[in-house]
Amino acid sequence: MSVEAPVKRFTLKDYKSDLHNDWCPGCGDFGILTGIQLALQQMDLDPDKVAVFSGIGCSGKTPHYVKAYGFHTLHGRVLPTATGARLANSGVTVIALGGDGDGYGIGAGYFVNSGRRNVDMAYLVHNNSVYGLTKGQASPTLRKGKRTKSMPEEAIQDGINPIAMAVAAGYTFIARGYALEPKHLAGIIVKAIEHKGAALVDVLQTCPTYNDLYTKEWYDGADLPDKRSRLYKLDDTGYDGVVHDVTDEKEIVAKKAQAVVKSYEREPIPIGVYYQAELPTYEDMLRQRIPALDGKPLVDIDVFHRDVNALLEAMR
Amino acid sequence: MQKNRLSWMIGGPQGSGINASAEVFAKACSRAGLRVYANIEYHSNIMGKHSFYRVRVSDEDLRSYQEKIDILVALDLETLVGDADHRRWPTHYGHLHEIDRGGGVIYDSEIGFEPPADRSDIRFFPVPFIEVIRTALEEVGKGDQARRYEILKNTVALGATLALCEYPFDIVADVILSQFKGKRSEIGQLNVRAAKLAFDYVRDHFDCAAFPYRLQPNPERKPRILAKGYEIIALAKLRAGCAFQTYYPISPATDESVFLERHQREQSLLVVQCEDEISSINMAVGAAHMGVRSATATSGPGFALMVEGIGFAAMTEAPGPVITMYQRGGPSTGLPTRQEQGDLRFVLHPAQGDFPHVVIAPGDLRECYQDVFSAFNWAEQFQLPVIVLPDKKLAAIYTTIDRLELTYDKVERGKIFTGSEWTPYAAKGNDLVEQDGHLPGGKKPGEGVNEYLRYALSDDGVSPRSRPGTPGGRFWSTTDEHDPDGHITEGVEMRTAMMRKRMGKLDLISRTVPKDQQYELHGPADADLTVVAWGSTKGTILDAMLALAEDGKKVSFLQCRLMRPFPAEDVERILRSAKRLVLVEENYSGQLGAVIAEETGVRIEDRVLKYDGRPFSEDEIVAALRERFAGRPEPHTEAVMTHVR
Ligand SMILES: Cc1ncc(C[n+]2csc(CCOP(=O)(O)OP(=O)(O)O)c2C)c(N)n1
Ligand code: SF4
Ligand SMILES: [Mg+2]
Fold first, then answer.
1. Does residue B432 carry a pLDDT above 50?
2. Atom of ligand 2 nearest to the CA of A211
3. pLDDT tens digit sequence for A98-112
């Protein structure tokens, strides 16, 4: 018995813009771009029904290379902008992305609050431990005592742990991918998009130009005696980050604690899904509050013929 | 028939319910056909600090407050004598000095007030507030709980007032009852009883007939509403089809958003309380790009955080948002609950670079409605952020206006890509090639290219926008300089073309916005003196002009309303043909004066400025103008300060 794969409407090419790409040769962003395009293709999403939002940085240029609606916004403000867009039109798949400086530094407030808001949206962070576009200063994920070749002095502020922060903030899907494994990354991105709620994908990204600490060779473990990769896949270990009974407060806390503990594992670094719980989204709450939103995006509701007579009457 | 004319004030500690009392009184007057102008002054504090609410009532239209009070109601001693006894730097000296000769004071006989000998020209009406409350409670078997019901003092104050001016009690009782519906109707009844007992007490203990102030319903009742500015603005947002409002709490802007939030269910309006104003503006920009009419509301400190979002919206030609930016006293946290027109120059130049946006400053509630409604049209027609600039005074004044005529509201959504039309070839920015008649791809001049370009170079600067999700309408958008595709460019020609495209919209706006919404010259054409002002001083100046007309003085008033693009030519013509110019503003530096100087080259040297955090009273404007007619020779800058003692 043969199972026929459903016929896809779109090919990978349909998600590629013909714009000349100006990232440095070998930049990890290429892998993330491919991961996004692969994910869109796997999901067979209509490029006209996808909007990719980005912040500012090398990573911020990503939407220009994706054939979909693309918004290259402000440094650190991609989450609020994408949130506004998503709430305005739930008929469009919204993907937000940006650099680690963008999301965990200047945009830290929105990173935290987007977690607690739990808007149904995937957020990808290109985590290269540097500010690429401003020539390699330390980003908020670079750990204390580290110094890339682009830095005059070593870092004396510590790096944050984005996974643990995401747990605390309330993200309902938390994963980590690796830029140079686009197929694995694409699988995570598909899950993040399919997840109902705020989904964070922290993507370990190489920056060959400025970050000489965390290079492809470093991730590959080329310098280690046994040449063992510094990454391993959670899926390969039987790790289960999914909350199966979301009404069970204890299970939620246990799975969160498990994710946090995992997030402190270094060398090897786990990649894959750390935590997932399908909890009511912001949109679910809104639908209860605003009945007209049930089954209809905000942009399609006729708000141009409102009856305000009762309000005027109350002002008599 | 005697004319209705009363200036009433109630003062007390914050949290004591003076708002309720003043607003019920205002409503009871308005429903009986009287015109009302009420304004509140309060501290940035929740409990205890002095606040007061002034209600001015008349048969004629009222647009300002006067300094003199006819009846003062004092819930505490501080309302009468100020806080000099317990503050090193007194904030005020009480309101006793503001009471007009022949007027009166109703006060709580418990507060330990001794009428001063130097005010034998006014009458004093001590009322045992707590006793009245106790009596009302005794009737429902709660006589021992009087201290728990101190909030009823404001109702007692109201009842006492009504007795003094011999106003029909029933009208007020109806208003009170209409505010306590359902489960709370018992409390309504209690309030009515307390008010009635106070009413009876005053009638029985004092010679009310000898008190010269009377209020009577006006028999010719026009359909009017009694509203606050923020309510009118919220109403305009609803009527204009605003679907998305973001906010971060800040006085005096919050009320608008909370009002909308309260009605979001039945009006299908999404209101999002954000983590800060940066989030507020950017969410609103994101929503605008998706094709909904979006808005946010804030005040100076919040706007200071929003500025990058204004540039973002302008650069990406977002069809919005509309920002209602309620001015309050600055700088920095400044005077959170007080009046100032101090942010004009700030909102005109909020962010880096040259970019187009619209700024309009309504002068009264009707203009608030009109300008906010128009703002949504302009945001979409011109694809840029629009700032409407009210202030604390406009937000909070509670005044009668003729019922809004809503039938003329017309929604204009601008150019929208529907999938059927394509971009003209020249709009790609390749018109240089077109000039020699050789077009790539064998196209003929004027023929379209088979793709949609969001940032196509159009003659008027506006290119059709596409709603994300529209088939074939895909586009990119970036805060970097960009080409018609919306991709980043740093090319010399494209940069120049895009700069001209965006900035050219300002000319289009000047041509599109009706002249009478841009500015207005009020008063006689042959005036001897022309007041130049903007925003919420409008009503005060118009009232002052009436007073000067009674003196036989011809005064006109140039009201500037559209601040960007500024109607420079027309304003210059008016200014140059005026006999004498006086600038009136509620700020330190004369910000409109600076804008006028920049735009027209006309410098107005005669200036009446106020920056004490309080709006001008009618009297202050009248006095300043009379002084000019009295022939003070040299134009000068006069700093007006509210008479606090
Ligand atoms: C408000 C603001 N401050 C500073 C900058 C300058 N700037 C551009 S990109 C960038 C950092 C980018 O780093 P990251 O977010 O990690 O992105 P990457 O380039 O590494 O992908 C900065 C500081 C800016 N564009 N806006
Ligand atoms: S600087 Fe680094 S992050 Fe930026 S494009 Fe070059 S390699 Fe990539
Ligand atoms: Mg980075």
1. no
2. 2
3. 999 999 999 999 999
Q: Is residue A221 part of a domain?
A: yes
Question: Candidates A24, A30, A32, A212: which one to mutate for ligand 2, based on the most atoms within 8 Å of Cβ?
Answer: A24
C-alpha distances out from residue B180 to A182, A309, A316, B162, B188, Å: 64, 21, 16, 20, 5
- The residue range of the domain holding A100 is 12-314
Burial (0-12, 13-18, 19+ Cβ within 10 Å), B498: buried
- Residue A21 forms part of a structural domain: yes
Residue A1 lies in a domain: no
Lookup: tokens for B420: 């059927």
Nearest CA-CA distance, residue A27 and chain B, Å: 19
**Number of C-alpha atoms within 13 angstroms, CB side, residue B211?**
29
> Total structural domains in chain A?
1
- Is some CB atom of chain B closer than 8 A to the CB atom of A298? yes
Per-domain residue ranges of chain B: 2-222, 227-401, 411-492, 515-641
Cβ atoms < 10 Å from Cβ of A195: 22
Reported as type and span, the H/E element at residue A108 is: helix A108-117
Task: Tell me how far apart the alpha carbons of residues B155 and B75 are, in angstroms, rounded to a whole number.
Answer: 11
- Mutational pocket test of ligand 2: of A21, A58, A149, A151, the residue with most ligand atoms within 8 Å of the beta carbon: A58
Main-chain dihedrals φ then ψ at residue B488, nearest 5 degrees: -65, 140
CB contact set of B593 (below 8 Å; sequence gap of 6+): B532, B583, B585, B603, B604, B607
Q: Check if the beta carbon of residue B149 is closer than 8 Å to that of residue B176.
A: no
Distance CA A290, CA B60 (A): 42
What tokens does B119 get? 């005010």
CA contacts within 13 A on the Cβ side of B462: 22
Among candidate residues B49, B96, B79, B409, the one with its CA nearest the CA of residue B236: B409
pLDDT band for position A2 (cuts 50, 70, 90)? low
CATH code assigned to B2-222: 3.40.920.10
- Going by C-alpha positions, the residue among B69, B63, B7, B37 that lies closest to residue B618 is B63
How buried is B632 (Cβ within 10 angstroms: 0-12 exposed, 13-18 middle, 19+ buried)?
A: exposed
Residue B5 pLDDT > 70: yes
- For B227-401, CATH number out of 3.50.50.60, 3.100.10.20, 3.40.50.1240, 3.40.50.970 equals 3.40.50.970
CA B111 to each of CA A204, B76, B107: distance values in angstroms, whole numbers, following the listed order: 70, 6, 8
Start-to-end C-alpha separation, chain B: 36
pLDDT of B439 over the 50 cut: no
Same fold: B227-401 with B515-641: yes
Kindly state the average pLDDT of the residues B386-391.
98
The region, left, alpha or beta by phi > 0 then psi within -120 to 50, assigned to residue B619 is alpha
DSSP H helices in B82-225: 129-138, 153-164, 169-179, 185-205
What is the end-to-end Cα distance of chain A in Å, rounded?
Answer: 75
Per-residue pLDDT tens over the stretch A22-81: 999 999 999 999 999 999 999 999 999 999 999 999 999 999 999 999 999 999 999 999
Scored b (16 or more CB within 10 A) or e, B86-122 reads eeeeeebbbbbebbbeebbbbbbeebebeeeeeeeeb
**Which H or E element spans position B244?**
strand B242-247
CA of B468 to the centre of ligand 1 (A): 26
A3 Cβ contact list (under 8 Å, min separation 6): none
CATH topology of domain B515-641: Rossmann fold (3.40.50)
Nearest CA among A180, A201, A131, A173 for reference residue A276: A173
What does the pLDDT look like over B391-423, one tens digit per residue?
A: 999 999 999 998 877 767 899 999 999 876 666
Mean pLDDT of chain B: 93
The set of protein residues with a Cβ atom below 6 angstroms from ligand 1 is A 56-59, 75, 98-102, 126, 128, 130-134, 139
Q: Do A77 and B309 touch (CB under 8 A)?
A: yes
